[in-house]
Amino acid sequence: MTDRPSSTQGPPPSVPRLEHHTLERIETVWLGLATVIALLLFTSVLASFLSGTIPSLSGEGGHQLTGVAKGRLDPKDIASTPFATPGLRENPDGTLEAFVVAKAFAFDPPVLRVPAGRPITFHITSADVMHGYQVEGTNINVNVIPGQVASFTTTFRYTGTRSAVCNEYCGTGHHNMIGRVIIEAPKP
Ligand SMILES: [Cu+2]
After folding, report:
1. What DSSP assignment string belongs to 12-68?
2. Which residues surround ligand 1, an ion (CB under 5 A)?
3. What range does the record give for the signal peptide (predicted)?
4. CATH number of 75-184
5. Measured in angstroms, how far is the CA atom of residue 48 from the centroid of ligand 1?
6. What does the pLDDT profile of the chain (188 residues) look like in tens digits?
């Protein structure tokens, strides 16, 4: 305290002094802004709940799979679901579905052959622990949770071979858990 310059000189003229009422005004503005932001957040969350933008957790909707009720299955009983024979299949209506099973430390099928330019609906599940399914060079990246089916539809635009990696640490062989997706030119 003693080595401070004498207060009789006052602040330099270029710097306006912050009076008590100036600070009070700034704080009131900030408090008002915070109140407005809090109100906006509250009403937007409330509105999304009321309008149903937040997906319900009841498991309704989504993809319907024979042998899989509400996207849930027993990981120990995959044999009674379409995942018993993993791979690509063409339905009678011409749609394509790909079933993939992730298990420590591989994907089944290890090599998935798909045509380019056609929408393919993927269904992926885990036979044991939590895995990931990420196809490099695409925006495919899902969590593969045991007991649940991850479903999405995608269309590969370019032919070529891409790696499918597990991006969720699943054990000692995790770094070897690499599959392949071979995208072929569609048959005429
Ligand atoms: Cu893994």
Report:
1. -TTSPP--HHHHHHHHHHHHHHHHHHHHHHHHHHHHHHHHT-SPPSS--SS--BTTB
2. 166, 170, 174, 177
3. none
4. 2.60.40.420
5. 35
6. 445 555 556 656 676 666 777 778 888 999 999 999 999 999 998 988 887 766 555 555 556 777 777 778 888 888 888 899 999 999 899 999 999 999 999 999 999 999 999 999 999 999 999 999 999 999 999 999 999 999 999 999 999 999 999 999 999 999 999 999 999 998 77
